[in-house]
Amino acid sequence: MNKSILSIALGLLLAAAAPLVLAVPAGAEVKSADKELQQLYTQGQEAMSRKDWAQALERFRRLEERMAAGGDSNVDTAIFWQAYVLVQAKRTGEAKRTIDRLREKYPQSRWVAESEKLLRQDEVASDTTEKSADDRELAEIAVEGLMHAPPERALPLLQKVLAGKQPEKVKRRALFVLSQLESEQAMDVLIGVARNGDPALRGEAIRMLGISGDDKAVNELSTLYKSAGPEEKRQVLQAWLVADRKDLVFAAARDETDAKLRGDAIQLLGAMDATAELKQLLPSVKEPELQSKIIQSLGVAGDVDAIVQLLAGNLNPAARLEAYRAIGIGGGKRASDALVAAYPRAGNREERDAILHGLLIADDAKAMTALYKSAKTKEEKQQILRMLTTLGDDAAIEIIEQELN
């Protein structure tokens, strides 16, 4: 890259304007004792943080369905989050239809006015930031262009970007470029930001150290973890996930004294398919909540057989219920067969309900229909039918038709 192009790139970076973020009103959190609802909400929020609008929308739609099936009073909040995601994703037509549905179903909900406010915010933002968005896009392209420049030429420009008044999004792109430069000096700059940089960028710098996959970066992450606060430790755990370092995440799940962070590490092991590490961890974990998280993570990793084996042992009641739901998360025919086989042995209504939730998560209407047909009491039929009707499958609709006739 010649000197004139580098100068133009820097000029574009200096011209970029700050992005506008749509505000979220207070009280929009979903806090539920139902672990499945809480998990769907958390997964939706995490997807939004990654700007994965499709996954976020899917999670909030499922959240609405499960809330409606369970008679939860906060269904309107789940619909609001769908509208929020659609506005952020610039799917304005769908956002308006979602708000119309919210208004029709819950005319007294505070989220009707808040959703409409989101649309107005978006319209104002679109009118006032169109030009700055174009400038910002040019700046991002310019930064990416530095990836192809010699490190000794790119590094000073990237340092100017990080030290200047450019938008955060452009600075984040600069951190990514630093992580891709095959330069020890670039890695030192990245480590410096992760240690002592702008608080808004430190988390991104930590993530980029994970993306780099560099041995020096991974060692630095281990050092950072020892002295970091809870939030930065979470960011380091995420960086280890990106770097595919099961050993380091496992060590945190085993040795961390903060129960919430241990739970986070356990969930990441599930996302990393670290079934051997999860099974090794389980005997040493005494806290019921963490035991449940390990079982849930085995489901995320798809190890249905391991969960079935645990059910044959002496699980505490809460972990037993979690195991049935985790089998559903594992999915597939093996999961459905295991749940159907467990149903006749369920000792109480709570266990039967957890098994049905597992089938609901596995989205297996046929298996649930078979249980409905073999149910021996009216109470069981009612319990199964309530779950079955939320699936909307042909098999479910046939049962509904039979009952109506």
From TrEMBL:
Keywords: Signal. Residues 1-23 form the signal peptide. It comes from the Bacteria. It holds the Pfam family HEAT_2. SUPFAM superfamilies: ARM repeat, TPR-like. This is HEAT repeat protein. The lineage of its organism: Bacteria, Pseudomonadati, Pseudomonadota, Gammaproteobacteria, Lysobacterales.
